[in-house]
Write a structure and sequence with these properties.
Layout lengths: L3 E4 L2 H12 L14 H12 L4 E8 L2 E9 L16 E7 L10 H14 L6 E4 L6 H9 L3 E8 L2 E9 H9 L1
Parallel strand pairs: 4-5
Antiparallel strand pairs: 1-2, 2-3, 3-4, 5-7, 6-7
Helix pairs in contact: 1-2
Length: 174
């Protein structure tokens, strides 16, 4: 599967994003009760933030997943771990579908990681999924993430995990 990326346009993309982030499948995105205006506002804030970026993953020009990348020294994990130069934080969301495609989500996380590591300044990807999100823990492990520890964030109990460029390359070529 081949994906391309484009920045989220908060106003034009809000209806699609709203459908994705409020679906029960996206419970760990923590926007279940968001109104359309809430989604617009949240993604306008991201678009204006130099330390946080939202991108769509596209297949044949159509959005098929969402990824966010952030600087963990300035967003999400400030004061919760020792950020290093070259760290980038990441979230991704595949929307609910009535026709699941075998291997799709693994292809998505692989594409997200490859996209992040295209930047030579990125040395390590940091994630902090909810400890209860076992499906994403398995996907993270498949692309080379190693859990470090559980930690408390204001909104959840998270599993802090890291993946270096070398760990990613080893995992996807194994």
């Amino acid at each position: 599967m081949t994906f391309t990326f484009r920045p989220v346009d908060p106003l034009n993309d809000a209806k699609l994003l709203h459908a994705w982030v409020t679906h029960p499948k996206a419970a760990f995105w923590m926007m279940q009760d968001a109104r359309l205006e809430d989604v617009e506002r949240a993604y306008m804030e991201i678009a204006a933030d130099e330390h946080h970026h939202a991108l769509f993953g596209l297949r044949d020009g159509e959005p098929v997943f969402l990824m966010e990348k952030y600087d963990p020294a300035h967003r999400e994990l400030v004061g919760l771990y020792e950020a290093r130069p070259g760290d980038v934080g990441m979230h991704f969301l595949t929307p609910a579908t009535d026709t699941p495609e075998h291997g799709f989500t693994r292809a998505v996380i692989t594409a997200v990681m490859a996209h992040l590591f295209e930047d030579p300044a990125v040395e390590r990807v940091v994630v902090e999924p909810d400890v209860r999100n076992t499906a994403v823990h398995a996907l993270n492990a498949a692309v080379g993430f190693v859990p470090e520890r559980e930690m408390d964030k204001p909104e959840k109990r998270a599993l802090l995990s890291f993946c270096t460029r070398e760990q990613f390359e080893k995992a996807v070529t194994a």
